[in-house]
Amino acid sequence: MSNTPNSPKKILLSGVFGPFGVDDEFGRKENIMELFHNQVTREQGEASFRSHHRSFGLYFLAENLDGDITVLDFPSRKAFEAELRKGYDIVGLSFIAPNFKKAQAMAAAVRRLSPSSQIVLGGHGTAIEGIEKLIDHDHIIRGEGIRPFRRLLGQNADAPIVHPILPSTEQSYVFGLPIPGDSGNLLVPGVGCVNGCAFCCTTHFFGKQSVNFFSSGKELFETACRIADARGSEEFFVMDENFLKDRTRAMEFLGEMERTGRYFDELHIFSSAEAILAFGLDNMVRLGVSFVWVGVESSSPTGNYEKNAGIDATQLVNDLRDRGILVLASGILCQEHHTPANIQRDIDFMVGLNADFVQFMLLSPMPTTTLFKRHQELGLLREDLPFEEWHGQKELCYRHPAFPGDAPAVTLKGAFRKDFEVNSSSAYRVIETTWRGYQRLLNLPVRDSLLNFRLLKIGSRLRRWSPMLAVVASHAVNDLERTRALELRAKIDAALGGSLKSRAIGLAARAIAAAWVLRLRVLGDGLQPKQIRTHYPATVRRVQAAVLTMPCHRKPAAQCPQAAVAMVTGESC
Ligand code: B12
Ligand code: SF4
After folding, report:
1. What is the pTM assigned to this prediction?
2. Class of domain 10-162+529-536
C-alpha cells in the first residue's frame, strides 16, 4: 500500500486466473486461451496453429495510469491471492462474460485478503446486465478504460495515450515448429467499430464508434516506427476491429510509408468486406497487408449485414489470395433462420470460399448487443445457461428449437472438419497463397521501389515457409492434401531452386513434427499460457518511460523534463 496521501497509488491489474480450457467449477474445456486452436484450426490436429496472446487491455492501462502498477496476466488462483497479500490500493480486474465466475471469485478474494483495496471492474464482462449486484466492486468502468480510469485517479483523462511495446503473439507453433517469421508487434489504433452489426460485442461495447488512441494516420505511423525500433521487428498485428474502415487514416499511414521509405514488412489486420473494397486490394499490397480477417457471416442476405451487401465473397477471397494476402473468413452458424436442412448450404458456402482459414462461430446474443435485446424481448435468452457456457462453441445461449443441447457443437465440429478435408490444412493454404502472391508480384510489368520491397519480402516468406510442405505432405489429412503439397513443393523448388539446405530443414522439421504428434497423444493437446508479471514503476521512472516512448513529433519534450512531466500529468509547465 502507498503510505502517505501523496505517494503513488499501488495498483494491481489482473486478468482472470487459469487453468483455461478445462472443465472445472469456473470454466469449460471449450474455452481455451488460444485463438486459432480454439476458433479456427481446431479440427486440424497436429496442423493446428497454436499461440497465446496477452490480455492487451491491461498493458494499455498500466502504460497510461500514474501509479506503482503491477500487471498479472494468466495467474493461477494461488498466485493472484499471493499477489493480493502484498497490499494494493486498487485492484483492477479485466474479464469477459464466459469468465464471469472467475472474476466473481477474484473480487471475493480481494475483499477477504486485502479489504482496504478498492476494486475496479473492466472489460467486456461488465456489459452483463445487473453486474453491479453480481460482483463485489467499488467502481465499474464500461467501454474504453484508459480515460475513465485516469479520471478516477484524478489524472488528466485526455493526456496523450502511450502505446505499450509488446509482442502480438507468444508461443506460436504449427506442427510443433515455431511459426516462420518473427513474433510481430502489437499495434492497437483504437477500439470499437462504427458498423454496428447486431450480433457484435465490440461495436456495442464501445458505443458503435471507433474510439481512436491516435489522432491521425501519421501519428499512428510514428507510433508504429517507435514500436518497431524498440522490438526490432517490422511486422505488426493491428488489433483494430475494422482497420480499413477509416480509409483516410489507412491512406495516410500508407502515405507516410511512401514518404519516409519505411515500408514495414507485414501487417495483419481485421476489416469488413466493404471497407476492403473501398480501400482497394492493390493498396493493401502496397500497405504490406499479409493477413486479413473478414466477417463473411452468411451465404444469404437473411443472415447477413449491410457490410456485405452486394459483395461476392468468393471473388473477394480469391482476389486477396491472388495477391498473397492470407484470408481468415468467419461465418455464423445456428442463426435464427437455420435448420438442420438448410445450414449445410451456409457451411458449404464457407468451405467453398477456400479461404486460408475459416472461423465458424455460433450466433450468440452477448449482453449489450442489439441481438441480445431482441432475444430478450422475444423471451429467447437462455437464462438457465451459466455464463461460463456463453462462449459460442457448444450450446446456444438462446432458444432455437432446431438446435437443442449439444447439436450446435456437433454442427460446428462437422463444419470445421469439412473445411479441413476439402481445402487441406491451413498450413498448406498459407504456402499456396504466398506462392500465388509471389508470382503475381514477380510478373507485374512495372514495380516501383515499394512493390520491389514487397516482392523481396514475400519471396523470403515463401523461402521460410516452403520447407514446411514436406511436413504437410507427411501429415496430410488425405491423399488430396498429400498430392497438393508435393505438387506445390515441386513448383516452388523449380522456381526458387530446391536447395540442399531447404531439404535438410524439411527433414529436421519432419522429425520435430513427429515428436509433436507423440506429445499430443501422450499429454493431450492443452497448452496453458505462462503467467506473466510485469511491474511498471511509479512516477519518476514512469514519466521517463513515457518520454522515451513518445511519438517522434513530440520529441522536443524529451529534452525538457518539465514539459515531459506536464504532458503525462496534464499539468501546465
Ligand atoms: C485477443 C482476444 C482474445 C485472446 C485472449 C486474450 C487474453 N489474454 O484474454 C484469445 C484469442 C485467446 C481470446 C479467446 C476468447 N475470447 Co476473445 N477477444 C480478443 C479480442 C480480439 C481482442 C481483445 C483486445 O486485446 N483488445 C484490445 C484492448 C486494448 O482492448 P480491450 O481488451 O477491450 O480493453 C479496453 C477496454 O475493454 C477496457 N478494459 C479492459 N480490461 C479492463 C480492466 C479494467 C480494470 C478497466 C477499468 C478497463 C478495462 O479498457 C481497455 C482500453 O480501452 C476481442 C475482440 C476485440 N477486438 O476487442 C475478443 C473478445 C474479448 N473475446 C471474446 C470471447 C467470447 C472469447 C472466447 C470465449 C472465444 C471462444 N469462443 O473461444 C475465448 C475465451 C478464452 C478464455 N478462456 O478467456 C469476446 C468477449 C465477449 C463478451 N461480451 O464477453 C470478444 C469481445 C470478441 C467478440 N466480439 O465476441 N480472445
Ligand atoms: S464490421 Fe465487424 S467489427 Fe464492425 S460491427 Fe460488424 S462485426 Fe463488428
Report:
1. 0.94
2. alpha beta
